[in-house]
Amino acid sequence: MCTVVLTLRPGHAWPLLLGANRDERLDRPWDGPGAHWPDRPEVMAGRDRQGGGTWMAVGHHVVAAVLNRPGSLGPAPGKLSRGELPLVAAGHASAAAAATAMAGLDASAYRPFNMVLADRASAWFVRGLGIGQPETWVFAPGTHIVTSHDPDDPASIRGAAHLPRFRSAPLPDPGTGDWAAWTALLSDRTGGPAAINVPAQDGFGTICSALVGLPAAGGPVWLFAAGPPDRAPFRPVASAS
What we know:
Layout: E1 3-8, E2 16-25, E3 30-34, E4 44-48, E5 56-58, E6 63-68, H1 84-90, H2 95-103, E7 113-118, E8 123-128, E9 135-138, E10 142-146, H3 157-168, H4 180-186, E11 204-214, E12 221-225, E13 234-236
Antiparallel strand pairs: 1-2, 1-10, 2-11, 3-4, 4-5, 5-6, 6-7, 7-8, 8-9, 11-12, 12-13
Helix pairs in contact: 1-2
């Protein structure tokens, strides 16, 4: 179960702030963010070497992340890789356009998934339940958390534990490089089953982390920790050309 936290502030100099921890099997190979797909030069993303896709992608206009739904970890015979979805979404001109494209998919072609799609103007949640077509809805302004459950769902023990903490914490200021409060929260290993930075156990845990800020004008600020965020430093990622 991965975690995405986002704050939406229409009209602000930094209208989108996003933080994400990726939880995965420790032996599943991957590459850090880069322009790994020659047919998608506008997209930067970490690459899952096993499935060939990604868990989060940043394009010229759209940030896109995919998460598993409960009980759907890993691939399944006959299903397409969910890792392709952020690559497709991040290539769109807006989050709204990406959400429309995702809503037109055949959800039965994939294992159940959640997606977060965001740009400077809006952010969207996409829910694929493995049947029919994915559902979409727009996030309201404010701070939200997405896990394997729906946004801000109290049934998510991780979401219920950490959403109040993010909502009460000082917001990052990407313009000055101040991400301290969110870095500390994403790095927290406490809380047992509700831990947002999952300690390695049975070959599974948090393997990397990301922070993204989209300004009202100009390119994104993207910081990436190539390991658990309490151990690996956040370093800048260059935008795609």
